[in-house]
Design a protein that fits this description.
Length: 241
């Protein structure tokens, strides 16, 4: 049975903390990227679980992710210089298909003046997930949203992303960043560049990971990131460190 825009309701918590539910045709101006989660993640009954804080760089937001897959995608969004303010799970689409149905996208992101609704692809997409994507497409066309499906990184890519993400704020002295960049004009290992810049091994490696996070340094992303990783300065300096 096809689902039309008139069949879809959007549930959310507004800026005053009130539970709201509106037809999708009436939500085009609502700043979902500024709103709190519709529901806070909790542990499954009878099972030890976790709630993970993923820190976004815009406005000092603290985003509470509900899974490791969601957290991995949150880290990718952290690194995206085009991604503006965002929120986790601020809306839920509801409709009827013989029985009540719902889907809740992982993020809403403000990007280049547009509202982007982000879903995290499950490890094994099901027919139900594909149906939810179809309904989201109908809702997005009505509300003027963009839809993006993110596939979480895995393996070495995820390991490296996690290391760089941990060092995203590792800047105590901007002068140290410039010293490290000055010694990476040519290819050399991180540990060699840190020694040449006269930095302590621990803080210097963190600064190198920070510069990799920002794109001011480059490396072979197919290799596991360590102090022995060869790095070099980006031709355009990456984004502002």
């Amino acid at each position: 049975m096809p689902v039309y825009a008139r069949d879809i309701t959007v549930a959310f918590v507004d800026q005053f903390g009130r539970q709201r539910a509106l037809p999708v045709e009436r939500v085009d101006g609502i700043p979902f990227e500024e709103l709190p989660p519709l529901r806070t993640p909790v542990a499954y009954p009878g099972r030890t679980s976790f709630v993970t804080n993923a820190v976004a760089p815009v406005g000092g937001q603290t985003l509470v992710c509900s899974s490791l897959r969601e957290l991995a995608c949150s880290m990718l969004l952290d690194r995206d210089p085009q991604a503006g303010q965002r929120s986790v799970g601020p809306l839920e689409l509801r409709w009827q298909d013989g029985r009540p149905r719902w889907t809740r996208p992982a993020f809403v992101v403000r990007r280049a003046g547009c509202r982007e609704v982000v879903c995290v692809q499950p490890s094994e997409p099901t027919a139900q997930w594909r149906l939810e994507q179809e309904v989201l497409g109908v809702a997005a066309a009505s509300a003027g949203w963009r839809v993006r499906v993110m596939v979480p990184p895995q393996g070495v890519e995820l390991d490296n992303l996690t290391l760089m993400h941990a060092a995203r704020d590792a800047v105590d002295c901007p002068d140290h960043l410039e010293r490290l960049l000055a010694h990476t004009v040519r290819r050399r290992t991180i540990s060699s560049a840190v020694r040449a810049a006269g930095l302590s091994p621990l803080s210097g490696v963190d600064l190198a990971y920070h510069l990799l996070w920002k794109g001011a340094l480059l490396c072979d992303s197919r290799q596991l990131l360590t102090p022995s990783t060869t790095v070099w300065r980006a031709s355009r300096g990456g984004v502002r460190a």
